[in-house]
Amino acid sequence: MRAAWVLLAALAALSAYYVYLPLPGTVSDPWKLMLLDATFRVVQQTCHLIHYLRLSHHLIVLNYLICTFDKLKSVSSEDINITDAVFDGVEVRVFEPPAKRDERLKRSVVYIHGGGWALASARTSLYNNLCRIMAESLNAVVVSVEYRLVPEVCFPEQFYDAVRATKHFLQPDVLAEYSVDPSRIAISGDSAGGNLAAAVCQQLSKDEQLAVRPKLQALIYPVLQAFDFNTPSYQQNMNMPVLPRYVMINYWIDYFNGNYDLAHSLLINNHTALDVSQALSFRGHLNWTSLLPSSFKKNYKPVIQTTGKAEIIQEIPALLDVRAAPLLADNETLQLQPKTYILTCENDVLRDDGVMYAKRLENAGVEVTLDHFDDCFHGCMIFTIWPTDFSAGIQTRNSYIRWLDENL
Question: Alpha/beta hydrolase fold-3 domain: from which residue to which, for each copy (predicted)?
Answer without folding.
Answer: 109-267, 321-381
